[in-house]
Q: What sequence folds into this?
C-alpha cells in the first residue's frame, strides 16, 4: 500500500537526508538515507515490495532485511500518527 502522510505533515529533502515536520506539534523527524529511500518509494505510489526492491538495488542487502526495514519504518510512521 502506498504511504500517505496526514495533511499536517511536510517533507523536505536536505543535504543530510529527508526531514518530516509534524505541523500539529512542531516536531521534526530526520530520516537516515535508508528511511528516506523507503519514504520516497512509498510516496511515489509504490507498495512495500517496491520500497524493499529500492533498498536492495541501492544498498545490496538481502530481501528479508529489506522487507523488515520497510515494515518497521511504516509501522513507526503509522504509530506516530504521521502516516496512514
A:
Amino acid at each position: 500500500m502506498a504511504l500517505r502522510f496526514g495533511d499536517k505533515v511536510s517533507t523536505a529533502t536536505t543535504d543530510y537526508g529527508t526531514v518530516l515536520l509534524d505541523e500539529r506539534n512542531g516536531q521534526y523527524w530526520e530520516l537516515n538515507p535508508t528511511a528516506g529511500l523507503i519514504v520516497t518509494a512509498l510516496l511515489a505510489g509504490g507498495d512495500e515490495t517496491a520500497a524493499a526492491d529500492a533498498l536492495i538495488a541501492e544498498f545490496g542487502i538481502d530481501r528479508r532485511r529489506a522487507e523488515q526495514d520497510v515494515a518497521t519504518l511504516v509501522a513507526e510512521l503509522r504509530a506516530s500518527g504521521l502516516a496512514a
Notes: The chain has a mean pLDDT of 92. The chain has three helices and three strands. Residues 19 and 73 are 14 Å apart (CA to CA). Strands lie at 9-14, 17-22, 27-31.
